[in-house]
Structure formats: structure tokens, C-alpha cells
Amino acid sequence: MTEPSFAARLRQIRDDRGLSLRGLAKLVHHGKSYLHELETGRKPPIRRSPNGLTRFLRPAGNSPHLLPPIRDCAAASSSPPRVWPSRCPTATPRVRALLHLRAAWAHALAGDSAATEQHLNVGTICLTEHDDRPEPDWVYWVDRTEGEIMTGRCWAVLHRPMRAIPALERALAEFDDTYARDKALYLSWLADAYFDANEVEQACATAVTAVRLAGGAGSIRPGQRLDSVLNRLEPHADLPCVVELRALAAEMSRRPPTGPATPGIR
Q1: CA-CA distance, 159 to 153, in Å (whole number)?
Q2: CA end-to-end distance (rounded Å), the chain
Q3: Structure pTM?
Q4: Is residue 126 one of the residues assigned to a domain?
Q5: How far lies 106's CA from each of 101, 110, 140, 266, in Å?
Q6: pLDDT tens per residue, range 102-152
């Protein structure tokens, strides 16, 4: 069930701005029925990075509880990753978790395994902490599953499959196919990790699932990630599983999206 505070906040802001559910759906690129389920508490908010809905929830003013961390705690584009968390030592636990997880990702992209592991460990600890202060609405999606996703992605980028695979498998167990776009993205990282573990057939099987999901997601990002996976499989182009995967990817690329983008825009 959606936390009452989140459902009430969403409904209040929509009403304050004079938006119908249909109007909000167009603004944040969510389905009308999905937003209705959020407002009535029948569906929990999705677990992922800030998207159109979280941007909508941010206030125009200077509420101390709702400002985004990138503004208050140093912009990612202008400060070294290692200083982001240190600039917000008194932030709420989820905000600190978010900053450490994002710092871990930046270090992973830079190839720094030690710093990545350090920030992942601290971020994971932050996710277990609680205090009496309300968390900002824009970190409602930062939870254990988000920690697993970021952990898996970081180790996949660092080509450490034995660490990446368990984390991604645990996270993906929390996602049903309703979240096609996000699930396809995370499966692409899992396919990469399987490939690094020399499990080519498993990498292909994972990528097949991702391709099928991406075909109806209404977003180009999963396709871009899957192109990278397909390129890595080129040395095994003669394997039946790779032939099947390439044929499926070609077929799905010719199909129009089957519906509007699934909830959320990364």
C-alpha cells in the first residue's frame, strides 16, 4: 500500500495546481489509472530514480523538507563525487543513502573499485537508519531495492559479476512486468554481468526477456543499453542463442510501441 503521506501529498499538489488526473498523466508521463491507484493508496510508488512525478512533487518555493539534494548538497556536474555526501552530514537517512549510492556509481564509472565499495557500504547502512524527521517526497523511491539495483549496476560496470549478479537478481525479484522500461534496463546490466561470468547462454536468455519488455516500453533508453549487450555478444555470433536474440531484437525494433511509456522516466 502507498504510504498515506505520499498519497495525500500527491492528491493535494494536483488539486492545488488545478490538474485533472488526465492532465497530470500527460505532464509526468504516467498512466491515468496508475496515478489514480497511487492517490487512493492501492499501489505503492515505483522504486527508481527521480522522474516526472518526483519533479512534479518538488515545490516552487523553498520548503526545507522538499528541496532536491542536487541543489542543496552540491551539483553532480560541478563537484567531485567524493564530496557530495560530506556536504550533507545532517541530511535525513534516505537523502544520505541517495548521495552515497550516486557517488558509488560515479566512482564505478571511473573504475575506482575501492571508493565504489566504500560508498555502497555507507549507502546501504543509511538505508537501515531512521530518525524523527520526515523524509523529502522526492526520495520516496530510495529503499533496499534501489540499493540492490545500484550495487548490481556498479559491480557490473566494474566487471565484477560475482558481486553484480546476486544483487541484480534480488532487485529484479521485486519488479513485475508493469515496470517494463526499468525492468528491461536492469536486465541489460544483469546480461552484461552474466557475459562477464562467461555464461553466454544465460546472458542471451536474460537479454531476450529485456528485449521483449523494451519493445512495449515507449522509451529508447532500454534499446540503447541492449545494443551494447548485443555488441558484446558479437564474438559468439554463431551460437544459436545469439542468433535468436539478434533476430528478436531486429523484429522488435521494427514494431511500434505497444502503448504509452511505463511509469517513470529515468
Answers
A1: 10
A2: 23
A3: 0.68
A4: yes
A5: 9, 6, 22, 16
A6: 899 999 999 999 999 999 999 999 999 988 888 887 787 889 999 999 999
